[in-house]
């Protein structure tokens, strides 16, 4: 219960700020927070996870609903559209959970996920700069927004008092995050900015404020939107569902692991869907798991979802008791909250780590960032997914492979390129290909086998493929494998496989290749395959045992 009270100090200002980020009235962020907390408490598997409005979702929601709101900018229509977007997102999440599609969360690789979130952070940061400086722009798109911001500053549109309030709020928030994370810096900044605005009457100096928020709580209702709008929202809902379930499942697993617990990813997705539907029916918008609020609840001593129930109850009491809570809350202070979230969202440390560890994945991460920045947040989701899948295909397209040899005094067989001292068995090529055989890499496999034969000076008699990493062979690969068999037969070379999995053997049987290769040319281990070669050909070979003694085989 204490953790719930502490959590409320973050829920209220963040809820209002993220609603504005989504292009909605601030109070809708409070409605959304309440329904997300209560619904997840009823259906969620995690004892610690906190759901609610999220800074990463705000730009996606705005990108989906603002083009449909129209030039009049009707707030009621925006709320209805956001509510329907949440309902659609929830339905898709529940469908994915019931269909046991929790594995969809793994389609975004870590580097691409980092780039995607970094791109959102940049979009959020640039979009909030005008409000932080006390003025508005009508620009859309990252470059246009930045250009309009610079032009506004140059033209003298900055409101000094608003900038001062925003800068002070940002300094307080970042300062407490860095030096005393358990202290609610956001609450201190919001309360301080609100008091300063009222005491010094800063609205007369051009400081824009949120104004009074409606008191009470809305009654449940299905959002009223046209069928055409539903069709237009569906694609955005699919993207939001993918992003939210990916983030929620990942965050849930992280916190469960810290506590020595486990969670069902599919139940997590169903609970997320239920929370979205509930929020949408109470004038809310799509929600996701929150890392900052979950971490705060954990550090404050949360042990069960009673924490969320207490937080939701406290927000309802605030709404019922006083609708003027945010009357003097400056817009630049809300912008400071969002900018602080964007700064936290931008993961510079991971980019440095990728630069040091694997630069090819750093380039993927930067490409995902640029996809969001250049094409927009919603198309950026597609760019991120495509980049993840393309990276997987690239690795399988040109996988690691090796011709193997024997090293004195060491177990197993090893890559002769990495170990030039390794000895090769006369008349035999040992070859390992670390990927499934499919249309994109089968020709490479055949060329590498042929090249390995040509590289040898002694007469070749067998090729043994160390096939444990080979998890599949598709129809295109089967056709190319058949051509390779023709080529090997013309050279008088036999093909054998070691450690090939049963399901892949079944594939070869269906293609008619298993019988052509011969049942006696499939071996359970590499050692038995080599023994089979030596026995079948009568080859004499001096091997080195693990103790370094010479043994003639």
Layout of strands and helices, then pairs:
Layout lengths: L1 H20 L4 H18 L7 E2 L5 H12 L5 H24 L11 H23 L9 H13 L5 H20 L5 H15 L27 H32 L6 H16 L7 E2 L1 H9 L6 H16 L9 H15 L2 H10 L1 H17 L1 H21 L3 E6 L6 E3 L12 E6 L8 H13 L7 E5 L8 H17 L2 E5 L3 H10 L1 H5 L4 E2 L2 H12 L4 E3 L5 E3 L1
Parallel strand pairs: 5-6, 6-7, 7-8
Antiparallel strand pairs: 1-2, 3-4, 3-5, 9-10
Helix pairs in contact: 1-2, 1-11, 1-12, 1-13, 2-10, 2-12, 3-4, 3-9, 4-9, 4-10, 5-6, 5-13, 5-15, 5-16, 7-8, 7-13, 9-10, 14-15, 15-16, 17-18
How would you summarize what this structure contains?
The protein has 21 helices and ten strands.
Describe the structure.
The protein is built from 21 helices and ten strands. It has 553 residues and is α/β, with parallel strands linked by helices. The chain has two domains: 2-347, no CATH class; 401-552, 2-Layer Sandwich (Transcription Regulator spoIIAA). The strands form three sheets. Strands 4-3-5-6-7-8 form a six-stranded mixed β-sheet. Strands 1-2 form a two-stranded antiparallel ribbon. Residues 545-553 have low confidence and may be disordered.
Provide the β-strand percentage band: 5-15%
**Percentage of residues in helical conformation:** 55-70%
Distance between the termini: 74 Å
Shape: elongated
Total beta-strand segments:
10
Looking at how many chains there are and whether they match, the oligomeric state comes to single chain
**Class by helix and strand content?**
alpha/beta
Low-confidence segments, ≥5 residues, pLDDT <50? 545-553
- Total of helices: 21
